Please model this.
Amino acid sequence: MPELPEVETIRTGLAAHLVGRRFDDVEPLHPRATRRHVLGPDDLRGRLRGKQIRSVDRRGKYLWLTAADDADEVAIVVHLGMSGQMLMAERGAPDPTHLRIRALLDDGNELRFVDQRTFGGWHLDEFVDVGPGLPGKRAPRPIPEPGDEGARVEGAMASPSQAVRRLPESVAHIAPDPFEDAYDPDAVVDLLRRKDTEIKRALLDQTVVAGIGNIYADEALWRAEVHGRRRTKALTRIKLHETLFAAREVMREAIKVGGTSFDDLYVNVNGESGYFSRELHSYGREGLPCDRCGTPIVREAFMNRSSFFCPSCQRPPRRSPRR
DNA sequence: AATCGACCCTGCTCGC
DNA sequence: TGCGAGCAGGGTCGAT
Model:
């Protein structure tokens, strides 16, 4: 399941293969894969043809390629949904099932978007400048000066961590992820203390902190010894910091080993699996002993999916609504 | 206004 | 062997 560590693994692989390449052609093969591009698949194809890929970036689970020619620059925003893959292949290699978009590159290779469940897709987007901190605080647009290359706000910001970040417009509504300079755990803790919701819901809310999905939420909560149904405002500031720190650390470790693969739905750009599944402590371990205390891990329905936790290390709140 | 649950979508596994 | 139910789940949207 592509959460931040899986998307980062893919981003690294794509950057190595794609930066500097040009699109000979881009073929949308399934309408759902480009449904978020409102101008339609033909527009996407026409606008990308001939453009050069300048960089591959990410915030949370969103990935984008910056593609440009002399006249035009555009973000190709990619969301993998649940089962999306970005795969490199030699041109003419057999098409995989669920091939949704094929991009022909000028070095004779192909970039393929493969997606079994078609929750993901590509769309083109413009860039906006976003201020530091949580969404909603958009920086004023810099006045473009003739010959001003970078279009950055200089001097207005106190430190590099306060810098304006240039993001595709459709990505600007989500919060910084824990690996960005703009990530501010104090601000996230403040927000969590103001919110009236459960901690797991909040961790999954991409406008609070980006990149955490069901697997890494459960792992972070297990590490921090917090039950996911605890109310955020009832947790101490220290506990909230511990939980956020645990989330960052578990994702950092997962990135090191190429992410979490349960099956071939998540693989890197070369089709290889990640190895973090063998280091999971709670997710998917129903009935197995907790690695800390030996109590069997419990699975519980939550938001149309599952939560896994140790009922001993992670005490449920007193009146936890069960279903 | 913030919160919460339903829904989208496909393929695979499981139980009968 | 066939078949339907259940499940995987990130993001969006409507209801409250």
About this structure: Residues 1-3, 61, 79-83, 117, 119-120, 204, 206, 213-214, 262, 265, 303-306 of chain A lie near DNA strand C (CB under 10 Å from a C1').
